[in-house]
Design goal:
Blueprint lengths: L16 E15 H5 L10 E2 L2 E13 L5 E13 L2 E11 L2 H9 L5 E10 L29 E10 L2 E11 L11 E11 L7 E14 L4 E3 L10 H5 L16 H10 L2 E15 L3 E2 L5 H4 L7
Parallel strand pairs: 5-6, 5-9
Antiparallel strand pairs: 1-3, 1-12, 2-3, 3-4, 4-5, 6-7, 7-8, 8-11, 9-10, 10-12, 10-13
Amino acid sequence: MKVAETKSSQGYGKAPWIFKGSALYQLHLVKAETARAFIPKEFRLVEAFGYTLGGFFLANYEDSPAGAFDELVVIAGIVWNPPTSCAWAARVLVSSDDACDHGRKEVGLPSHVARFSKRNATIARQRTSKYNHFLDPFGLGTALSRPDDRMDVQVTEINGASTTNICNINLATAVPGIKWMGPAIKMSLPSFSGRTEHNPNLLKYSCNIECRVRAVRPAEISVPFPASKHRTEESLGHHNCKIADSVTGEILDNGQNLSLSVMLSRPILALEFNYLKMQVEAPSPVSHCSKSSCRTSLGVS
């Protein structure tokens, strides 16, 4: 599968930027120790009992300023910015050079180009349905299939001529006969970004979302390494842990290791977004925020 061909990066134009498609938003309990490795020193995590709320956002955009592309946003955790809290992205993988460039320079995201290889794991007969819109881009437009049918999405990071297998996301198809797409909702997801080599500023931006949403079975995450006690979530979370790709033999960098630790943490909720329209506002600089003023815990400000 080739990286998606996209429009010129100049096609983004001025904000707000509109993205349309479908997505899976999965929330995980992430160890605070792991999340803190990504958070700038100005902020403190929203945490309790050694955990924060992170996870990932897997999207397939049918239309955007960069054309059609796939995106995986690994969310390290939630940080405090009175009077509200904001998500912090640990790593962003996109199947578009233009989306990667825009994310790095304009939004201050830790963006990287990746390939999203999708494989239908089912052997059952399937009947096409107009209802399962989230799975359509992945080749699973089925409403009448076995409940254990799966779809594998292999994410491979691309850095010049080299590639690194990052993870496999195993998605469940719709439960047989279920056509309910969930209620229509509007929500805002405020986020922090910046402090990267491409954009050293500390930024805040907002994603305003309109979609149909419903709870689904959490996706299963696996890493492309031989199973051993050294490849657990705990070991990946250690900063000095060196993990090699089982295919290429390349050592994963620290950011990749820690991002995998977030992905392998315990899922608590998975939401499927259909008929997604996401409006991303232009980032704005964040004024200085000391640790004391940004410190909080769950339910305590």
